[in-house]
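ok trying this again, last paste got cut off
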Amino acid sequence: MPLNLLKFAFRSDYGEPRMFRRPDRLREEYDVVIIGGGGHGLAAAYYLAVEHGITNVAVLEKSYIGSGGTGRNTAIVRSNYLTEEGARFYQASVDLFRDLSRTLDLNLFYSERGHFTMAHSLASLRTQRWRAEVNKHLGIDSQEVGPDFIKEKIPEIDLTCGGHQPPICGALYHPPGAIARHDAVAWGYARGADQRGCEIHQGVSVTDIEVRDGAVTGVHTDKGFVKTTRVLSAVAGWTTHIQKMVGLRSPLVIHPLQALVTEPLKPWLNAIVVSASLHTYISQSSRGELVAGASLDPYELISMRSTLDFAETMAGHMMDLFPFLGDIKIMRQWAGLCDMTPDFSPIMGTTAIDGFFLDAGWGTWGFKATPISGYAMAHTIATGDNHDLIRPFNLSRFSEFDQVGEKGAASVGH
């Protein structure tokens, strides 16, 4: 053990400040109340303070920060979407992510690995070629690659999938594809918002939202009532509960999504591997764990319980791609909640209720959008006008029949 670390362990006063304060009580009034202490809500608070000078902000989290989707995802960052609206939006997020460790003064373990979306048929390969061309048109680094290129970058992969699945015949390769430490992103935004005067209240549940004459006037919580004229809901899988409080309807449905991590291994997988045909995505964390997930569970359910069926199926598909993994141990598995929209694009921005804003519909792609979502929602809350990047994602698109057709290209979505 290094001497400095040993000396630090025996100090009675570490001299290190808390990541953020824990206020004793709620104020009577806030300029903005953000419901949800995940990455999106905390990022919105941070950018409200940094970009717009709005610091009288309360972030209300019923559990602890990052306890929802932020802490229950596989932390993949990419921008190789098919629609122009989606690709531009996620590329803006990648641009912010690349310098976010420096911006927040916290090591987020952001690591560009290269993202492979494997094709197991010629039809799938044509789709990957289409995505690559759209990405290139928008200035996003993506390309179609063949089996030889895949094998060179990932020598351990079995392109034949052991004969159990159709063989891999090519892929969409997205070099900027990256992973990050998801909880550190939440901590960094929380600390940044707190340092600028915003308040983060953990263990506070919102029980109702006061609406008068079509406008927000306050929020009821289990710790009392607070006045506010602007409320942002950023609660992912719990959005349907919040929107009922203001009388809004949306086409959201909630599905569980499961993932797992294995015991740590020496670094060997320096890429993100996604197979839409196997509904599998795999990467290796900075600690050596293999992080793997699958597609949505096929039923609508608000539940964060994981299942044996998922672990068995996931293990089988991992071995189809990497047969030598047969002896490694699964250390833990979990489930998160995915708020899915019909077009596989988010719901963001203003609503029919004056002062009520939505940041929802993130399904399986919410983490990668954290920085730009916070930035765009802060602009929208501060100005009352939807940021240009999120105009296509407004809730009104469903009543206007102007959906963003990401579903056809999302595949496994990660």
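PB: full thing came through this time. Residues 36 and 235 are 5 Å apart (CA to CA).
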